[in-house]
Amino acid sequence: MAWRKVEREYFRSLANLCAFYGIDEPDVTEIPYPQNIVHSLQQVSAGLNACSGELELLLLQKDNGRTVLATAKCYATGNKIFYLPVTTLHRLWKGRERIKTVRLAMSLCAYIYQVLDIPFYADESSYLWGTYQTLQEWFMQGEDEWTDEEAHEELMGELLFIQSAGEQVLAEISKKQHLERLEIRTAAYIPHNENERRLRSVCYQACSLKRDFPERSLMASMSADMSEDPSENHLYAEMFIGFYWGGESDVLDEHLMNYLNDHFCECSSGDEARAFQFFNRKPKKECHDLSFEKRAFELLDSAAYTLFRI
After folding, report:
1. Residue ranges of domains in the chain
2. What whole-number distance in Å separates Cα of residue 115 and Cα of residue 220?
3. What domain of life does the native source organism fall in (predicted)?
């Protein structure tokens, strides 16, 4: 019977986990299925919290259908948003100013977009694309409420412009040549001021991350608490990580941030970077390695600051 297979796989995994963490294995031989699983899971979860408060205990079914226990460790970002502005990069690129700086910045953004898989606001599937569209609809519907007609027209014009500009930058950073030349451009780049030195430093960070974790996607590391189904008020990774316009218009940025703050305040749960350890067999050592996620978020933080100031 199917439930016997689930029970057998669960208790085998439970024994591996208890032996690894030095937790007493619960005696539930007198308790029938499925209450035996519920009771033992509660006891082991309490024991795990006592020896390591940083770990989540999860009961999962893997892709092959096997039931297995796992522990997960999170990398907390502290409710921070990681938005990378592209307005300055677009202006320099279109003005053909500081070509070597622009090319280096393009390579940095290409790595972040193509490999780390960070969403771009001009992509119609992205959360920020939908957000800008919502703002545009609000401004159109509330046209009669504006006392300054010129300011309203200017704001609507900027929304149209940033969509076109974003599509241009997105097409450029999607090119493989920018990604392939990241290391070469970084090594050859000669900075002339503090902002350019910072850009080179951030690109060295990206080169190091790319070398140590080739093809690793940050977005693939993000997940919800797997012990619960995400609610409607869940903060998904693409909502707080992405490229945005980061424009020179204080008015548009103010409307955008107000919208995001209102939306995020309604969220009761959120995605986090998680590293898993499965107990279908007894592991030799703990392997909740979050070094990639830590370095990737540090890179995004540094890149956001630098792209705003290049």
Report:
1. 2-75, 82-273+289-309
2. 11
3. Bacteria
| Total residue count of the chain as it appears in this document | 310
Tell me: the pLDDT tens digits for 176-194? 999 999 999 999 999 999 9
Residues 141 and 129: their CA atoms lie apart, in Å, by 18
In this structure, the strands spanning 82-85 and 241-244 are: parallel
In angstroms, the CA 89 to CA 87 distance is: 6
pLDDT digits (tens, 9 = 90+) for 32-75: 999 999 999 999 999 998 887 789 899 988 777 889 999 999 98
The answer to whether 137 and 87 are in contact (CB under 8 A) is no
Give backbone dihedrals phi and psi of 118, rounded to 5 degrees, phi first: -80, 130
- What is the model's pTM? 0.88
Q: DSSP letters of the chain?
A: -HHHHHHHHHHHHHHHHHHHHTPPPP--TTS-TTHHHHHHHHHHHHHHHHH-TTEEEEEEE-TTS-EEEEEEEEE--TT--EEEE-HHHHHHHHTT-SHHHHHHHHHHHHHHHHTS---BTTSTTSHHHHHHHHHHHHHHHTGGG-S-HHHHHHHHHHHHHHHHHHHHHHHHHT-HHHHHTHHHHHHH----SHHHHHHHHHHHHHHHHHHHSTT--SGGGEE--TTS---TTEE-HHHHEEEE---S-HHHHHHHHHHHHHHHHT-SEE-EEEEEEE-SS--SS-----HHHHHHHHHHHHHHHHHHH-
Burial class of residue 288 in the structure, from the number of CB atoms within 10 Å of its CB (0-12 exposed, 13-18 middle, 19+ buried): middle
Burial of 280 (0-12, 13-18, 19+ CB in 10 A): middle
Cβ-contact 182, 114 below 8 angstroms: no
Cα distance between residue 168 and residue 102, in whole Å = 14
